[in-house]
Design a protein that fits this description.
The protein is α+β, with helices and mostly antiparallel strands. Helix content is about 20%, strand content about 35%. It has 8 helices and 19 strands. The strands form 4 sheets. A 6-stranded mixed sheet has the order 6-7-8-3-9-10, with helices on both faces. A 5-stranded mixed beta barrel has the order 11-12-13-19-14. It has a 4-stranded antiparallel sheet with strand order 2-1-4-5, covered by helices on one side. It is elongated and about 75 Å long. The relative contact order is 0.12.
C-alpha cells in the first residue's frame, strides 16, 4: 500500500451514498444491543463507531450492511428506505476483523469473487482486480494464496476485495485489530489517505480511541447500545458530553467528591479530608450532591500555577515512557496520573504536589453512573 500512488481512482470514480439511521433498536432476547441509534453519515465521510467491547457498535454496522434486521427504526441510503433490503441490494462492502479470505483461492480469485458473482465479462474482471491490487500495493501478488501472505498483506487483500466492487458505502469492522502495533500505525495512516483520495463514504468500527481520533471525520461514542455523543475528534476530546465520554476518550483521572458550591459555571468540590478542587461544571450541579472531577494527565503540572488547584498525594508508580514519565499519585484513595519530565526521579512513597488549572478540570454529576463505567 506504500506504493498506492502508482494508481489511484479519482474521487468521482463511483457513486457514494449518504447513510442515515433513525431510531434503530436491536434486541437479542433480553439484551438491547442497539438502543434507538440515530445518526447521519455524509457522502465521502469517514464516520467511526467507537466504544468498549459489547457496546453495540458491530451490531449497528451489521444493520447498515443488512446482515441484521432492526426491531425498530429505519436505515436510509440517500433518503431511500433500505431497512429490509438484502445485503447485496444495498451497495455496501465490508472489511471484516478476521479478513474472511478464502484460503483455497488465490489473491486474484478472492478479490474477483464479488465481480464474478455479478457475472461481469472476464476481461473487465481482470482489469478491475489488477487495478484494485495496484491501488493497495499488492501488484504482482495475484497468484499467491492467503497463507503465503503476512497479516498486513491479508488485510490489504480484504480491502481490495471490498473496493473492487465500487460500493456506495464501505464498512470496516475492527480491520486493524489483528496487526502488530507498528504495522497497525502504518496501515492506519494509509487507510486514511486512501479513503480521502477515493472520497468513499466509510463507516468504521473500533474500540481503539487513538485509532478513532486519527482516522475519523466524526466519531459516535457508544456504550450499552446507546450513542452518547457525536462530534469531531476535537469536540469529543475537548468537550465530552458526559462522564463516560470524558473518561473513555483519552487518558484521564477521576476524583470523587461532594459539591460545596457552584458559581459562574464553576463547581467547587470537597474531596477526601483536605482537598478542595474547582473545575468547570459540565451540567447542572447542586451543593451537597455527589460529583466527579475529571483531569487529563497532560494538564497536570509539578510547577505552581497562579490560581490553579493544588493536589497533594503519594507517588505509587513511576514509569518511563520515552518522551515523558508517567506518575500515578494516590490522592486520598483516588489516583491521579500526570505526565512529567522523563529525567525527573520519583521514589515510591514520595509525597508530591500537583497543579492543574481550574479551566482544565471538568466536574460531572455522579448520579446514575456505576463505578465500573469510569474507573
Amino acid at each position: 500500500m506504500s506504493r498506492c500512488q502508482l494508481y489511484i481512482l479519482s474521487p468521482n470514480a463511483w457513486t457514494v451514498a449518504r447513510v442515515e439511521l433513525k431510531g434503530v433498536t436491536k434486541r437479542f432476547e433480553d439484551v438491547v444491543a442497539v438502543d434507538k441509534a440515530t445518526f447521519t453519515v455524509e457522502r465521502g465521510e469517514l464516520f467511526t463507531l467507537l466504544g468498549p467491547s459489547g457496546c453495540g457498535k458491530t451490531t449497528a454496522l451489521r444493520i447498515v450492511a443488512g446482515f441484521e434486521l432492526p426491531d425498530e427504526g429505519q436505515v436510509l441510503f440517500d433518503g431511500e428506505d433500505v431497512t429490509f433490503r438484502k445485503p447485496y441490494e444495498r451497495g455496501c462492502a465490508m472489511v471484516f476483523q478476521n479478513y474472511a479470505l478464502w484460503p483455497h483461492m488465490t489473491v486474484f480469485d478472492n478479490v474477483a469473487y464479488g465481480l464474478k458473482m455479478k457475472k461481469l465479462p472476464k476481461e473487465e474482471v481482470r482489469r478491475r482486480v489488477l487495478k484494485a491490487l495496484e491501488m493497495v500495493g499488492l501488484e504482482g501478488m495475484e497468484d499467491r494464496y492467503p497463507l503465503q501472505l503476512s497479516g498486513g498483506q491479508q488485510q490489504r487483500v480484504a480491502l481490495a476485495r471490498a473496493l473492487v466492487v465500487e460500493p456506495k458505502v464501505l464498512l470496516m469492522d475492527e480491520p486493524l485489530s489483528n496487526l502488530d502495533a507498528k504495522l497497525r500505525l502504518k496501515m492506519r495512516e494509509e487507510l486514511r489517505k486512501l479513503q480521502k483520495r477515493l472520497g468513499i463514504t466509510t463507516i468504521y468500527v473500533t474500540h481503539d480511541q487513538e485509532e478513532a481520533m486519527s482516522l475519523s471525520d466524526r466519531i459516535a461514542v457508544m456504550n450499552r447500545g446507546r450513542i452518547l455523543q457525536i462530534g469531531t475528534p476535537l469536540e469529543v476530546y475537548s468537550k465530552p458530553a458526559n462522564l463516560f465520554v470524558a473518561t473513555f476518550i483519552g487518558r484521564s483521572s477521576i476524583i470523587r467528591g461532594r459539591v460545596k458550591e457552584v458559581e459562574s459555571g464553576f463547581a467547587e468540590l470537597s474531596a477526601g479530608s483536605r482537598l478542595r478542587l474547582k473545575g468547570v461544571a459540565a451540567a447542572e450541579l447542586k451543593p451537597g450532591s455527589q460529583a466527579i472531577a475529571v483531569v487529563r494527565p497532560e494538564d497536570v503540572s509539578l510547577n505552581p500555577l497562579p490560581g490553579a488547584n493544588e493536589i497533594e498525594g503519594v507517588v505509587e508508580l513511576s514509569m518511563f515512557l520515552g518522551s515523558y514519565k508517567q506518575l500515578r499519585v494516590n490522592v486520598d484513595g483516588d489516583r491521579v496520573v500526570a505526565y512529567v519530565d522523563p529525567e525527573l526521579k520519583f521514589e515510591e512513597g514520595t509525597r508530591v504536589k500537583l497543579y492543574v488549572k481550574q479551566s482544565d478540570v471538568i466536574v460531572y454529576s455522579a448520579e446514575g453512573w456505576e463505578e465500573e463505567e469510569f474507573v
